[in-house]
Amino acid sequence: MPIADKIAAAKKIDEFLRGVTTHAGLRLKYRITVDPPLPDERDWERPEILVELAGPDSALILERGGELLRAIELLAIEMLRLPGNEHEKIAFDCMKQRAMRIEELRMAATVAAERVRKTVMPYEFSPMSSRERRIVHLALREQSDLHTESQGEGSRRCLVVYPQNYKPAAKPQRKTLP
Q1: Count of helices and strands (H, E) across the chain
Q2: pTM for this structure?
Q3: How far apart are CA 117 and CA 86, in angstroms?
Q4: How far is residue 135's CA from residue 109's CA, in Å, rounded to a whole number?
């Protein structure tokens, strides 16, 4: 379901970012684009609102793997009260970091696929966000000899790549004494 009023949502994001940059003393500029044009092959992400940040404090925003960028994005999503299944409708980026991370995840998916094929054993990624797991799922969706699953709970949720007909080794049954 699309965001009901994208222009109003973009204005709220603008107010929010103006407050964040002013009160935090961040030297950043930002551009908010409603219905941004994206390449057709980018089916893993189609945001309805794209926020691009740049400026002298970009390095600060991208430290620790873009932790501050993701935090600002999450606050904006919460401010708009978007349900969890609609978080992908808002995307924040800084200095093209998002595109680089997507390419990194796609390369990691390829490496994991080759490793699973070679070892015939599952490969478990480190915990990652639902958006990042989705990118890996989509990167491997056409690999008929593999399948992917998300496992775990909350912030510990990760993605596992399995050989197509993988059966886990049976656990030895416990015997109880009468």
Answers
A1: 4, 6
A2: 0.71
A3: 34
A4: 9
Residue type at position 28: L
Report the distance separating Cα 4 and Cα 2, nearest Å. Answer: 6
Helix, strand or coil, per DSSP, at residue 41: coil
Dihedral pair phi/psi, residue 104, rounded to 5°: -60, -45
Question: Which residues are registered as beta bridge partners of 52?
Answer: 31, 93
Backbone angles phi, psi at 101, to 5 degrees: -65, -40
**What b/e sequence results for 94-107 when a residue is b if at least 16 CB atoms lie within 10 Å of its CB, and e otherwise?**
bbebbeebbeebbe
The Cα–Cα gap between 109 and 147 comes to 12
CA distance 110 to 140: 8
Q: What is the pLDDT along the chain (178 residues), one digit of tens a residue?
A: 568 889 999 999 999 999 999 999 999 999 999 988 876 555 566 788 999 999 999 999 999 888 899 899 999 999 998 877 777 889 899 998 888 888 899 999 999 999 999 999 999 999 988 888 988 999 999 999 999 999 999 889 999 999 988 887 665 566 666 6
Which one-letter amino acid corresponds to residue 93?
Answer: D
Distance of CA 66 to the CA centre of its chain: 12
CA-nearest of 66, 68, 64 to 20 is: 68
